[in-house]
Specification:
This protein is α+β, with helices and mostly antiparallel strands. It is built from six helices and 17 strands. The strands form four sheets. Strands 7, 8, 9, 10, 13, 14, 15, 16 and 17 form a nine-stranded mixed beta sheet that branches. Strands 3-2-5-6 form a four-stranded antiparallel beta sheet. α1 crosses α2. It binds uracil.
């Protein structure tokens, strides 16, 4: 059961005060009856809510897959820079959304956006071993020595990387598939840089067992289905 003013505010992306004003004006119905008590609690799963004739679709948390383009930052607020939240379509925007994990400004691909802090913590915590898969375009080929170093866990000074997987994609040594389970600052770029290799392009293509939807153009976003959400946590690495 959830308070009706909170549900209206979240679903319509308005302030709690605005939601209360709608309720007091008699614009809100629950199962066909007008409700004017702002403290009313409703069952999100079974009660039917309308506000000003519009059906209220409510879910406690949302989970959004975005194909992040270059040039936007993975943060909730960006001062003078555009964020992944800024570029969401207006109907998807609601309070408290944040990107679950960081991608560099010039990295593209799978960005998960949610308002569920516990979920984000679970999939990002290195302890939970959720693999994140990337495609990296490189300026120089890598060899077996680099593959072994990735697998052993590269020492980046203050940061010690956990074992990671590195393989050539389509047998092209300038195009690498990298799987890591941490999310340290510039991690993949720094791992390659240790071996004199520059990452020219980086794209995240998978989180856990869930692949980035190939139909999502860069900048597009869509909600995850419940089974897709489960696929993220269903894959554990090493
Ligand atoms: N590693 C990086 O270097 N950059 C990213 O955006 C993600 C992983």
């Amino acid at each position: 059961m959830e308070r009706i003013d909170k549900i209206i505010a979240t679903a319509l992306n308005v302030s709690r005060n605005d939601a209360r004003a709608f309720i007091k004006k008699g614009l809100v119905t629950v199962n066909g009856s007008v409700v004017r008590d702002i403290g009313t609690r409703v069952d999100e799963d079974s009660d039917e809510l309308f506000c000003d004739g519009k059906k209220i679709k409510y879910s406690k948390y949302v989970y959004i897959m975005m194909n992040k383009p270059k040039g936007v930052i993975s943060a909730s607020e960006g001062r003078n820079e555009k964020t992944v939240i800024d570029i969401l379509p207006p109907e998807m925007k609601r309070k408290n959304l944040f990107p679950a994990g960081r991608l560099d400004k010039d990295t593209t691909g799978f960005m998960l956006i949610t308002d569920d802090g516990d979920f984000a913590h679970r999939i990002l915590s290195p302890k939970n071993h959720i693999p994140k898969t990337y495609i990296a375009k490189l300026d120089k080929p890598f060899d077996e020595k680099v593959v072994r170093a990735f697998a052993d866990g590269i020492d980046l000074g203050r940061d010690k990387c956990m074992p990671a997987s590195l393989a050539a994609l389509d047998e092209d040594p300038l195009c690498a598939q990298v799987i890591i389970k941490q999310g340290m600052y510039h991690q993949i770029k720094r791992m390659f840089s240790k071996y004199g290799i520059t990452v020219k392009e980086l794209k995240r293509i998978k989180m856990g067992a869930l692949e980035l939807d190939p139909l999502l153009e860069e900048g597009d976003a869509r909600y995850l289905t419940p089974s897709e959400l489960m696929r993220i946590e269903s894959d554990r690495l090493l």
